[in-house]
């Protein structure tokens, strides 16, 4: 009987060891029992972890609870968080991050555990301007944030939707009128923002610049990518001077630009390139980003041609019956004819 009891206990112990979650094996659990932000408990998607004396917690909840807008690049495992005038960019696994253009060091790197992206709590919070206090008695971390709620102004009435989708599958919760202010919770993608209204509704609005004054470097980069991706669909489309608007079988330089901006970001530009050059704001060649418009002299006119800057010193445009819509290198041939660059978003 004694032998049978010993065997039973051994089997039970083995079963319990096998049942220990692999999450706990990966990194030891921190002695932290709870995390508070502005006296509200932070609901975490996974328990805090301890790594060399540093507490790591899931990324999204930590950023959003402190009023930061989050943008995540999956392929490069890079997060960009924007809060007021602060921009923090960090690539998971590295021991340095970029804070407003300056490189700063982390005591330990962030890591991905069981599908959860874990980042150092103190480092992120203090980078965002928050204070971090440790209550040893209750084993609680308390974060005091400096949120700037409801700083985004609606420029044109926009539907607050239940999903980031404009189809019937995403009904409108209500219309947000011009002039109302909302809090941006996060950038979903190039075309959608998750927001909160003052009457405590949370939903999604269009990120197109006509609807609000919200902007960030991360969103601008995504929208530039979206513009070029749509423009690429027309590679090889025939060139026709004076091509009619409202159709996509032929283009001239300005009708092509007009179609891309109207379809992608709902930005309506004048028909002629010399009028388009009066829109937006001027930028220098050393500050070009994807989606900026470049204007050139042509046909004896001071401004007679327009191209979309596609990044990496490339132009996306059309002017040739032989090539139609195509990419070009922004080389000396074009720089000699360059007049101005304008930013529309």
TrEMBL record:
Signal peptide: 1-24
Domain NlpC/P60: 221-345
Residue ranges annotated for the SH3b domain, each copy included: 146-214
Record-linked Gene3D superfamilies: Copper amine oxidase-like, N-terminal domain (3.30.457.10), endopeptidase domain like (from Nostoc punctiforme) (3.90.1720.10), SH3 Domains (2.30.30.40)
InterPro entries xref list: Cu_amine_oxidase-like_N, Mao_N_sf, NLP_P60_dom, Papain-like_cys_pep_sf, Peptidase_C40, SH3-like_bac-type
Keywords from the UniProt entry: Hydrolase, Protease, Signal, Thiol protease
Entry annotated with the keyword Nucleotide-binding: no
Similarity comment: Belongs to the peptidase C40 family.
Protein name: SH3 domain-containing protein
Organism of this sequence: Paenibacillus ottowii
Organism classification: Bacteria, Bacillati, Bacillota, Bacilli, Bacillales
């Amino acid at each position: 009987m004694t032998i049978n009891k010993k065997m039973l206990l051994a089997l039970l112990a083995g079963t319990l060891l096998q049942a220990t979650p692999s999450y706990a094996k990966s990194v030891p659990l921190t002695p932290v029992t709870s995390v508070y932000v502005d006296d509200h408990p932070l609901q975490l998607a996974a328990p805090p972890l301890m790594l060399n004396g540093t507490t790591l917690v899931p990324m999204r909840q930590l950023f959003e609870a402190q009023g930061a807008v989050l943008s995540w690049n999956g392929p490069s495992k890079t997060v960009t968080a924007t809060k007021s005038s602060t921009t923090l960019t960090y690539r998971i696994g590295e021991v340095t991050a970029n804070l407003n253009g300056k490189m700063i060091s982390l005591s330990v790197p962030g890591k991905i555990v069981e599908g959860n992206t874990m980042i150092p709590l103190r480092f992120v919070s203090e980078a965002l301007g928050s204070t971090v206090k440790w209550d040893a008695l209750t084993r609680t971390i308390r974060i005091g944030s400096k949120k700037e709620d409801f700083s985004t102004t609606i420029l044109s009435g926009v539907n607050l939707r239940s999903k980031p989708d404009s189809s019937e599958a995403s009904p409108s919760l209500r219309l947000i009128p011009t002039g109302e202010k909302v809090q941006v919770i996060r950038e979903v993608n190039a075309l959608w923002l998750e927001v909160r209204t003052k009457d405590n509704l949370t939903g999604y609005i269009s990120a197109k610049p006509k609807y609000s004054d919200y902007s960030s470097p991360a969103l601008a980069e995504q929208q530039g990518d979206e513009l070029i991706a749509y423009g690429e669909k027309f590679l090889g489309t025939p060139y026709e001077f004076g091509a009619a608007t409202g159709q996509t079988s032929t283009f001239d330089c300005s009708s092509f630009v007009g179609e891309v901006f109207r379809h992608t970001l709902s930005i309506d530009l004048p028909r002629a390139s010399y009028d388009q050059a009066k829109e937006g704001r001027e930028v220098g060649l050393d500050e070009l980003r994807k989606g900026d418009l470049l204007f050139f002299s042509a046909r004896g006119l001071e401004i007679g041609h327009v191209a979309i800057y596609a990044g990496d010193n490339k132009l996306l445009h059309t002017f040739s019956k032989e090539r139609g819509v195509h990419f070009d290198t922004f080389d000396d041939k074009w720089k000699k004819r360059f007049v101005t660059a304008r930013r529309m978003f």
